[in-house]
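Reopening this ticket.

The earlier resolution said the output was attached, but the attachment link was broken on my side. Pasting everything inline this time so it's all in one place.
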Amino acid sequence: MAIDRQGCSDEVPGRTVDSPLPEHFNIAVDICGRWAEDRSRFALYYEDEEGFTSAHTFWDIQREANRLSNVLAALGTLPGDRVAILLPQCPEAAIAQIAIYQLGAVAVPLSQRLAADALAYRLGDSGAHLAIVDQTTQPGLLPLRQQLPELRHVLGIGGAAGEGVRRWAEVLAHASPRYTPAATAASDPAMILYGSDTSGMPKPTLMAHRALFGQLGGYVCAHDGFPRPRDLFWSPADWASPDGLWKVLLPTWHFGVPLLAYKGRVDGGRAFSLMEKYGVRNCFLPLTTLSRMMAAAPEPRATYDLDLRTLTSGGEAVGQAVLQWAREKLGVSIHEMFG
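Inline output:
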């Protein structure tokens, strides 16, 4: 890959900017399958607010995704079928993305903060036939099932259980860890997004597998020649949002770089603690998080041992005060990403 280490890349792995798109392409194979042969390559570090931690290689993620693809197929999920994901940042959320894409089905990631009417609209509008929930989203979903005739199955992780809910751990335990990904065309649909708004009746955006190619150049530029040795990415952005997917999860794993996932509320002190503990080198942080961090630690490098290399933000303009604080106190320039 030809990268100008002082600025932007004019290529992405396996494809120059003027080469044609491949006829066949699958996001799951690109961001996980091709890295999984190296069983020592880490993909994800996970922590929750109770202090539970875990670490997962691409091989670990791929095997669990294979099990889930087999479970989804056994439940009648066909290529093109919609599968809703109502999960926080956690290993299962990433595994579900891989499993759905490699099956040729369509992922419908949805925010956990949706009100009942907003959730019912999105599930009905997308025609989701299966939903993956945890103990937080299950109570809001179950009362809606009678008005969602196409929603035939619910798969629950963690404490999600009860009538009509299949337990993730139980069904995956009996599934094969081997699966052959579908030979999807680059133009085949991969996901339906409803944006970051958690209310109302927004129009859906159907995105193809090939959409990943369009994100990579800007991502590499914004993170100063990404990837570089020891890079590790973290963002509190919801993996159900366009930012969380296209500016965090998908492009980071395209380059085979590990991610940190945190389940819980992120205040300023927690953000700095996570960055120090895991040696985070790259971040996408919305203005709300940056403002909390600035208030919690005006002089962060006096308190925390940080190794931050790149920092991006988006969604709303950051403002001069935060930009100056980042330059002077964090030692990085904030690159703002829009669109």
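Reporter confirms the inline version is readable. The mean pLDDT is 93. The chain has eleven helices and 16 strands.
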